[in-house]
Amino acid sequence: MTAGKSDSDTGFREFNVGFDDDGIRLDRWFKRHLPETSFTTVAMWARTGQLRVDGARATPGDRIAAGQMLRVPPPEADKAAADVDKPRRVRERVILSDEETELAQSMVIHKDFQAFVLNKPPGLATQGGTKTTQHVDGLLDGLQYDNEGRPKLVHRLDKDTSGALLVARTSRAAAFFAKAFSGRTARKVYWALVVDVPSIEDGMIELPIAKQPGTGGEKMHVDEAEGAPARTRYRVIERAGNRAAWVELQPFTGRTHQLRVHMAAIGHPIVGDGKYGGAAAFLTGGISRKMHLHARRIKVDHPDGGSIDVTAELPTHFAESLKQLGFEEKLGDDLVLDEKTAPTREQMKSRAKAHAKSVRKDRKGERRGRGIVEEKATGKPAPKTGGPRTGAGSKFGAPRSGPRVEGVKPAGRGRPGGAGKPGPRSGPGTR
């Protein structure tokens, strides 16, 4: 945005829309550049025709483009309107200490004109909250450098989860990355140590998740009736007998605590996750009690073309646990990233309809067959049954209980992929 110019006769101000504001709503532009102007004031200016974009009347919901000229009433009108509005808090840039700035910059593992990728340490929250004074969001002022705008968080990691965290440097990049995450084109790969060894070495967990009542939203749980759909793919990288397994996790949805809830639900809580695994989540023998969940890799399209593909080093406690259990870090990175993305909501609905149609067709054939057999045996027409169907494929059927995990079971014991061990995987669960 170029600095506003005032018309000497009318006092109206003119602003040129910058490249960073291309495509945003007009009310959003005011929130960024004239935060002291309330939405009520902007709406009033629009109703009275005082707000113009390239000379034409505009509304707060209109989207603006780079290069357009905005005409805004004079500051006096803004001040007069503000006198009748509720006071608004304007965020001031935080002055960080040298230690905080050094911490922020030490986390950077990728930097370009549009984005940072940070390697967040365990124990540092992504955003602030009750009794949380130090967090990644509060340290972003230390990464502003010479940019006009403040860096913006694109997604989050749990406080005790370490690893790759994407941060946008411009508003345009933030909008671009937000679409990538909501559209599930961004890929995230996590490493975790889990208790015991899953019987299926390459599986897909599909269990809906909701906030657990009575926890104030601090804890999630599997809720077949009210939960939001959640899908997680996992692959066993290596195993330590029957004691523990090192797994790769890929979330295909972005629910709160999804990976932790899903692994606990199938009986293999993440090591160190007492919240969802209880006392069973801690291993003896000197293994750290910290959470063993790490965002190892992030891959996402770049706003200027190409892609960002960054790997984050393990925290000390996780790396030491791998060594103690006899695991080789290289084996995890040797796994090929499956480029297939999760199906869209429309694709999932289409598949569900096709499956339901197939089930109805099969059941119709079964009923017809039973009727013919009964007629031959009794010489009388088979009685018609009434009432709603409650069997498989019926809309009235009861939901399946217990965790649903589909995938490939190992062909033998030992590490996956070894000689005389399980054969080659055939991909994630297929029906």
Extended strand count: 18
Distance between the termini: 53 Å
- H/E element sequence: EEHHEEEHHEEHEEHEEEEEEHHEEHHHE
What summary fits the major beta sheet? 11 strands, mixed
- Please indicate the percent range of residues in DSSP E strands (runs of 2 or more): 15-25%
Specify the number of helices.
11
Helix percent reads: 25-40%
- Rg measurement, Å: 28 Å
Dominant shape:
globular
Structural class: alpha+beta
Runs in which pLDDT lies below 50 for 5 or more consecutive residues are 83-90, 385-401, 412-431
Mean pLDDT, nearest integer? Answer: 81
Query: For this entry, what is the oligomeric state of its chains?
Result: single chain
SSE blueprint:
Layout: E1 5-6, E2 13-16, H1 26-33, H2 39-47, E3 52-53, E4 56-57, E5 69-72, H3 75-84, H4 98-106, E6 108-111, E7 115-120, H5 136-139, E8 152-153, E9 162-168, H6 171-182, E10 187-195, E11 202-206, E12 209-211, E13 220-222, E14 231-240, E15 244-251, H7 258-265, H8 274-277, E16 293-301, E17 307-311, H9 316-324, H10 329-334, H11 345-378, E18 405-408
Parallel strand pairs: 9-16
Antiparallel strand pairs: 1-2, 2-5, 3-4, 3-5, 6-7, 7-9, 8-9, 10-15, 10-16, 11-14, 11-18, 12-13, 14-15, 16-17
Description:
By secondary structure, this protein is of the alpha+beta class. The chain has eleven helices and 18 strands. The protein has helices at 26-33, 39-47, 75-84, 98-106, 136-139, 171-182, 258-265, 274-277, 316-324, 329-334, 345-378, and strands at 5-6, 13-16, 52-53, 56-57, 69-72, 108-111, 115-120, 152-153, 162-168, 187-195, 202-206, 209-211, 220-222, 231-240, 244-251, 293-301, 307-311, 405-408.
